[in-house]
Amino acid sequence: MQLVVKRKSRIKQTIPNKLVKAGGPNPNDAVKERSFVFTSDRDEQTRTMMSHRINNTAYSMGEINERVPFKQTEIWTFDNKRNFSHPVHLHATHFRVLSRTGGRNKVMPWEAGLKDTVLVHPQEKVRVAVRFDAYPGLFLLHCHNLEHEDSGMMLNILVE
Ligand SMILES: [Cu+2]
After folding, report:
1. What are phi and psi of 111, to 5 degrees?
2. Which of the residues 26, 45, 107, 116 has an alpha carbon 20 to 30 A from that of 133?
């Protein structure tokens, strides 16, 4: 695709030298760490499908998997132990990506802002700073690959 500029805007605009900071949770305020281990293994019942799990748990509608205090800053680690990639998605808040070890081994430039999804490739461990400060309630953490999510890669997070 080629864009041809034929006419310039009459509105005078200058690009700022510095962009605003993204804000969000400060990892120095964190009072708790949680670890979420992502695994994908052959389903022994069907033998043709995969069982995608977080912390070895298949999603269950009536179960609360984590209780997180409202407005508490925490460090969460998304630890992918297998050879599938997972776009890990969290509802109701945004998080800040702090580090990635293993795999690509760095935080990508496009991960500098506040995120609600972070891609965790095989063997990567991604640490994020999280704080729920908008609403208390029951929210989901899940892989955004819906095949993985539907096979169980989802947890209930109660913010209270
Ligand atoms: Cu996934």
Report:
1. -100, 10
2. 107
Per residue in 57-114, pLDDT tens?
Answer: 999 999 999 999 999 999 999 999 999 999 999 999 999 999 999 999 999 999 999 9
Q: How far is the CA of 68 from the centre of ligand 1 (A)?
A: 23
Reply yes or no on domain 28-58+65-159 having CATH 2.60.40.420.
yes
Alpha-carbon distances of 98 from 107, 118, 130, 160, rounded to whole Å: 7, 11, 10, 25
143 C-alpha to ligand 1 centroid (Å): 5
Instruction: Retrieve residue 136's tokens.
Output: 């208390």
Does the predicted TM-score (pTM) go above 0.90? no
- Which residues have CB atoms below 5 A from the ion given as ligand 1? 86, 143, 145, 148
What residue ranges do the domains of the chain occupy? 28-58+65-159
Q: For the chain, give the number of residues.
A: 160
Residue 100 alpha carbon to ligand 1 centre in Å: 17
